[in-house]
Write a structure and sequence with these properties.
4-stranded parallel sheet; 12 strands; homodimer; 374 residues; alpha/beta; 4-stranded antiparallel sheet; 15 helices; TIM Barrel; RuBisCO large subunit C-terminal-like domain-containing protein (chains A, B); RuBisCO (chains A, B)
């Protein structure tokens, strides 16, 4: 097989960087002293290779290493294990960037099945950004959440997702919630003529998730939300293979804890086949910079042979007032997710949603046509 | 239901800490402005509550919050989601400590099924520390790995695990590797009379893992290794339920514990039912302090009603020469894992292993009798 080109960022003293680079190359491959290995295949084809160690200034080094793609075996979880499994335990190290060779990309699967284009096509939104909101707070009954879902859909929004905290709790068991919200969606879309999608949140073991998808399909739904850092990326890969018609939106829950650059993580999740990536927008509740957000969006939509573009979904403390700014920043290849700001409108939810939707439609019309993404 | 007592550590300016505490309590519960919520159940039983904000000095604050156990629904993945899902995205925040109420602990399951006591009983090691090594490097064929396994077992070691990088790669597919190593183990243990256990590494989706466990059981094995941060903690929970007779050793791959305190993570994994926790020992390849290691070991064995003690497994750059020091530090409630240091002995592997084992036996005999762990 071939080699994965991996860049780590090391915060440390310059004298240390070369030695740390060699240590990482060993740790992320044979994980034992090379001098104790005499097998030529292992030393030639498995042992990691340091390509470059470069100072980025400010005590930061970029360490570039080639890791053997043969160690991955086509498993996305194993890919994470070999890229950063043990090295994630170093507080001064970040997994910054990866370039996966074509044979490994193919071994990981067919990638996103709907992607940005599919999510657009489903709601008839070829030439504009997409709109999304969230059902909150958890603690509401299925009927309470369904009322919100209906109000959002009556405002013409494209996607309505569960709050990621909704799982299967006593106050809102999954089957009842999905049935109520799906029915609400059918009522609303019959009135508006706009095919708004309800997006349940999947949780629990893979077995539990399969049962949730059975219910989802029974209700005629075709979109779901997952948290790859909670469910496990190999399970995401499995879902992608087994449910090619279900669009998967990825939520970043727990993804912040592992010191993987968010744009790099977006690439990894796109490889595993998710169709959209939710992330904290700059200027919201979280501290992501504009640059980080741009890089996440780029990682989502960068044209890549054999890998469909996915929808970047900036979220977290967004407001309708910021929509023009957000669309200027991201362009139209984006799904804007506004939750609390709309829910705060209480009884005016549908009107506030309609205003959100109208702003997106009008602003997108003023922008240049979107490029087609393979 | 009841409340989970959660402590976060915040690196930030004192003026900010109270506001951040309130924000975290909201983020990890209703995730929207409380003023936009009028449902009394949500505000009374779901919304997180700040208990205390305390300066620890050096710009560090301890923030203590009560989170509603009702949001967890008995799902270990959902527990992670509600404890730290979105808040993991804050670079200045760490999940430091949790105390789970008894009803939630029961809802999460029966906990470890073998635990430290079961791992001891299986190898007849009631009054001493346990010994373990690892099959490396990956890239070796099944036969090559089996030769190492046999050599370790002939040295009288208790547990021989796969290197966590071994999954199902072309050079060592899981079925062939397990068959070869299991056969080697049978040969060796027939000669030594010591019931050494081979511990395959599980990887891939939950479906793939079930197939691996089928093979494992077919080979008469009863122990396996998992990486909860890669497989997903809800899937660990599922395995625990479905395979009560399989001892599960947890590997810290990707656990990147800088922002979930390693002892807190140990508690979470113990709740999900793993029987042993592998972690980087102080003074080895990783930067964990003595204090951190002690806290991990304490979290593993602390007597807890309804939750069996699990084996702490310090690893990572350990050596036979350090065994007395390690046993003085951890006592006998530990499984010492030495990999590279033994493998570096090449042809002398069995003798070196026998020396490791003898050192542990002799040193343990000199220590006080172990306490019994419920």
């Amino acid at each position: 097989m071939s080699w994965i080109d991996v860049t780590y960022h090391l915060r440390g003293s310059p004298e240390d960087a070369e030695a740390r680079a060699r240590a990482i190359a060993v740790e992320q491959s044979i994980e034992m002293p090379p001098e104790a290995v005499d097998d030529p295949f292992v030393l030639g084809e498995i042992l990691g290779r340091v390509v470059a160690v470069e100072s980025l200034g400010g005590g930061l080094h970029a360490i570039r290493i080639l890791l053997s793609a043969a160690t991955v075996g086509g498993d996305a979880g194993q890919l994470l294990n070999m890229l950063f499994g043990n090295s994630s335990l170093h507080e001064d190290l970040t997994l910054a960037e990866i370039a996966v060779p074509p044979d490994l990309r193919a071994a990981l699967g067919d990638g996103p099945q709907l992607g940005l284009d599919g999510l657009r096509r489903r709601v008839g939104a070829q030439a504009r950004a997409l709109t999304c909101s969230a059902l909150k707070p958890q603690g509401l009954s299925p009927e309470g959440l369904a009322r919100l879902a209906e109000a959002f859909a009556l405002g013409g929004i494209d996607y309505v997702k569960d709050d990621h905290g909704l799982a299967t709790q006593a106050y809102s068991p999954f089957p009842q919630r999905v049935a109520a919200c799906a029915a609400a969606m059918r009522r609303a879309t019959a009135r508006t003529g706009h095919p708004t999608r309800y997006v349940p949140s999947l949780s629990g073991s893979l077995d539990a998730v399969r049962e949730q998808l059975r219910i989802i399909k029974e209700e005629g739904l075709d979109t779901a939300m997952v948290a790859p850092a909670i469910l496990g990326l190999a399970n995401i890969q499995q879902l992608r293979r087994d449910y090619p018609e279900i669009a998967l939106l990825a939520h970043p829950s727990l993804a912040g804890a592992a010191r993987i650059d968010p744009a790099c993580l977006t690439t990894l999740w796109r490889l595993a086949g998710i169709d959209a990536v939710i992330f904290p927008n700059h200027g919201g509740r979280f501290g992501y910079s504009e640059e980080t957000c741009r890089r996440i969006a780029d990682a989502a939509i960068a044209p890549t042979p054999g890998l469909a573009a996915i929808a970047p979904v900036p979220a977290g403390g967004m407001s309708v007032a910021r929509v023009p700014e957000m669309l200027d920043f991201y362009g139209r290849d984006v799904m804007l997710l506004i939750g609390g700001n709309l829910l705060a409108e209480g009884d005016r939810l549908s009107d506030a949603t309609a205003a959100f939707v109208a702003t997106v439609h009008q602003h997108s019309q003023a922008q240049a046509p979107a490029e087609t993404h393979a």
